[in-house]
Amino acid sequence: MKESSAGTQPGAKVSRVSFDPEAVDDLLSRELRQLSFQQRSVIQEEIHGVRDAAINETPETIQEALREMSHELDNVLPVSEKTAYLHAKSLNASYVTGSDFQLRFLRSTLFDAPHAARKLVGFLDLLLEYYGRVALQRPIRLSDLGKDAMDVLRAGQTMQMLPFRDRSGRRIFTVVGDFGLHYDYDTRVKVYLYMFSAASDDIETQRRGIVFVIWPGPTNDLQLSFPDPKENATGAKIFASAPIRICAMHFCLRDGPVARFIRACLTLMVGKDNWSRIRFDAGEGTEILYKLMGYGIPVDLLPLTDSGNVKTKQLMQWIKIRKAIEVDIEKFGSTTIIECPFKHDVIIRFGKAYTDHPGTIMFRSILERHYEEHYMAASKESKVAVTWKIVEEVQKKGGRFLVWDNRGWWVQINDRAVIRAKVAVSMKDHTKRIQALQNVQSPQCSTYKFERQDLRKRKRYQGGSSDSQCCGHGCDPDGVF
User: What's domain 1-34+143-332's superfamily in CATH?
Assistant: First the structure.
């Protein structure tokens, strides 16, 4: 590992010459002590994913917050602190002054309008510096990155977003391998800004925030050097002005003599605003994975092999989706492509990653609750009524029903009749699983099979239907079985 003198960062009283990891630990402890017991409890609960800090929004609260934020931007902040914002206004940039853009910053600060205004002007300064005037007039796109930044992005070490959320519905950002530190710093900054901007496109992420998993790999073999003061200040500004809220930062390090040095470097890089959100998950690879699982993070999706190699398959799929989304928006002003399912979305696709999705887990729970009612329903009409209940229960939670498009992304099913039919099939599959489990667990005498057949016959005739309703091949998802 390469060491050099540390650049100071706002709020970090660490000498460049006398840098000491213990001094950084003291800073973290002091930061936590300045919080009240209630503040620490709220942060702990949010880090563990058991509290959703998102504000309950109404049209009235949104309008009031936007009004207060506009006042801060136009009348309170000094001119010297909002150069890019004033430049955007001179360009009549409706993108920057529009409510959609400003709401990202309000949600990232839990509707603290003065804080949101400071974040917005800071982020615009960075966009103007690294992308030019075009970034003040429309969202930045992959095509704005240029070849060098695209190469850095494709390498998968600077940042990746996992294709599914954690159990609390938060997007997962990963920084793995050597973190891309061997690439030019300004090029990496362009990637950071794009990733934060892209992540803030969906309202679910704006409200629930993101979680970072920072993991150099199994050996801690990281060629880490301290950034110069300018890079340090830029890094702090990026994290301080991001249009999304950082709920937790997991530093995953193997125990050893260099671990404390690495974690001290990373702590200074992410800025003071995030110190109370940092968790050090130290240990061997398997031990770290179990710790992350305890926070509801889908560890099977982490883009790092046991030997420390960076995986990029998910990243390439994400880049493909982003390109398609950006083409749609440029042509039509909107898109039907869904990059990442929301927490309560029900996804119709097989595979472990899909069955572990929070919305799918919720859906299985709803099926279980309605299983007996559906199973005991004597007629097809009664079963249909139960499946409609399930559809409505998912939709009341804000959930959508999604299917995988062969072009490589999720799309929403809008036809309610199709949705209900898929729910009926899911209930039928669930019933078969329950019955198979009962058959394995039940002591079955020689007459058991005939008794169950007789029960089914009675249920059919009580409902006024017969075996002729279904061919026996599952063609009728609402058949009484």
Answer: CRAL-TRIO lipid binding domain (3.40.525.10)
